[in-house]
Amino acid sequence: MSNPLKKTMVYLGLADEEEAYEQEQAVAAPRREKPQPVEKPAAPVTPLHRPAVVRQPTAGTVSEILTVHPKQYRDAQVIAENFRDGIPVIINLSQMSDADARRLIDFASGLSLGLYGRIERVTSKVFLLSPENVAVSGDGSVAQADAEGAAFVQ
């Protein structure tokens, strides 16, 4: 067994020593007739089904804005479902612990990035998630109301 690949295959248990030895002898002894290819049965293929209709937010006027006062991180599901439907979401984190609020803002940042939206800080613990088709106007300055809100600056 001079082939390092075959040695490795034998070592890993992917091939038997006898098979590797027989293959070496077959390579060493030239054959006069061309071997017939062995047809292996095709493996079953499971097709992937994609949804026929992809939900896209309508590019019309905004008729609804959702305001959420989450108390736990699991309230992120409500935020995600509405934002995915193209509804702007205002998140008021004043009733959450700082650790859960940071987790929720990280989640909301990823959500808005993934759906091409924007996340903007309105006050120290209030954030606005706006979908791609919603334009938010303003001077862009953020009110620094208290020192504990500085933990949410990104």
UniProtKB/TrEMBL annotation:
Give the UniProt entry's GO cellular component terms. Answer: cytoplasm
- Sorted alphabetically, which InterPro entries does this protein's record hold? Cell_div_SepF, Cell_div_SepF/SepF-rel, SepF-like_sf
Region annotation (Disordered) maps to 22-54
Gene name, please?
A: sepF
Its lineage opens with: Bacteria, Bacillati, Actinomycetota, Actinomycetes, Micrococcales
Its recorded name reads Cell division protein SepF
Q: What is its main location?
A: cytoplasm
Q: What does this protein do?
A: Cell division protein that is part of the divisome complex and is recruited early to the Z-ring. Probably stimulates Z-ring formation, perhaps through the cross-linking of FtsZ protofilaments. Its function overlaps with FtsA.
Q: Which keywords fit this entry according to its UniProt record? A: Cell cycle, Cell division, Cytoplasm, Septation
Q: Which residues form a coiled coil?
A: none
Q: Which HAMAP family match?
A: SepF
Q: How does it assemble?
A: Homodimer. Interacts with FtsZ.
Report whether Cell division shows up as a keyword of the record.
yes
